[in-house]
Amino acid sequence: MPIEQRDKEVILTLPSDESTSVKVLLHGANILSWTIAGKEQLWLSEGAVLDGSKAVRGGVPLVFPVFGKASSGPTSTLPQHGFARLSTWEFLGQVSASPLTVQFGLGPENISDAFRKAWGFDFTLIYTIALGADTLETAMRVENTSKVNWDFQILFHTYFRIPDVDKVEVNGLTGVSVKDKVSKSDYSESNTTVTVTSETDRVYEDVNNDVLIASAGKPLFHIYRKNVADVVVWNPWVNGSKNMGDFRPEDGYKSMLCVEAGSVSKWTTLSPGQTWECSEKIKSSL
After folding, report:
1. How many CA atoms lie within 13 A of 217 on its CB side?
2. What is the band of 1 on the pLDDT scale with cuts at 50, 70, 90?
3. Which listed residue, of 73, 140, 275, 285, carries a Cα 20 to 30 Å from 39's Cα?
């Protein structure tokens, strides 16, 4: 069957190739696995907690309605990266056979009382996942069902599996304004290719180009974005890996890189009844 619904997860399998599939955990609507011809494309920590007690370390967690931890405003009492990745989503079913496409939904009825108390706005999120022969497309529709305006940030926090972080390079970010959270500085990216040689945590703002992840010049992933202007590049490196209890193995940073499409450098404001949409399409050459 192309769609298999289990108690805690949903599995999409390409009818033309049973070794090409996507596994989605209902907790967080977190994509845990994406395989093409049996080859895993995403990095999932061996220490990832999958019982719903915390956010999943790896795959594709969803960040909403705040990126990081806000210091003030309505989202300031929410946990880091908000509640979407910490809540159980509703499986809405299959919406297309070609490409194989499913949807998940999240609203106030799906989040905890604590989250409702911290962020008391009404909303609807519709998350769409489409599996192709060598592509994975994710899209989010955000609707304000409240009677007042509210602001949000959103991010597809994708953990890519890579052969060797020492050889990885990210293309398409030259000349882009950067907020560097490690050096605590702002600058314009001068490098033609971005490499990772130490702890890396950067927000590239208003990226107009498509992004390419390559290894020693060989393409791995092409990333195409719609209506999400920012790209986050993150790798915890040696010390960061050791300091996260659910990041395993400790040297797992050598085989992963987060390149995350989102709208996080600014706040998006939705008026009552207004809808906002974005999407990301990843084409793998791995």
Report:
1. 0
2. confident
3. 140
pLDDT at 286 over 90: no
C-alpha distances (whole Å) from 72 to each of 75, 76, 171 are 7, 5, 34
Task: Tell me the pLDDT tens digit for each residue of 111-132.
Answer: 999 999 999 999 999 999 999 9
The residue whose two tokens read 């084409």 is: 283
**Within 10 Å of residue 79's Cβ, how many Cβ atoms?**
16
- Helix, strand, coil share (%) of the chain residues, nearest 5: 10, 50, 40
Identify the CA nearest to 230 among candidates 250, 214, 211: 211
- Measured between alpha carbons, how far is 177 from 196 in angstroms, rounded to an integer? 18
Q: How many CB atoms lie within 10 A of CB 174?
A: 13
Q: Which two tokens stand for residue 153?
A: 């940030």
* DSSP tag of 79: P
> What pLDDT, in 10s, does the model give residues 35-60?
999 999 999 999 999 999 999 999 99
Q: What is the C-alpha to C-alpha distance for residues 195 and 21, in angstroms, rounded to an integer?
A: 30
DSSP H or E run through 63: strand 62-63
pTM: 0.98
- Name 182's Cβ contacts closer than 8 Å, sequence gap at least 6: 198, 199, 200, 201, 202
User: Rounded CA gap, 26 and 89, in Å?
Assistant: 5
CA dihedral 79, 80, 83, 84 (to 10 degrees): -170
The catalytic residues are: 157, 260
- Alpha-carbon gap, residue 237 to 98, rounded angstroms: 39
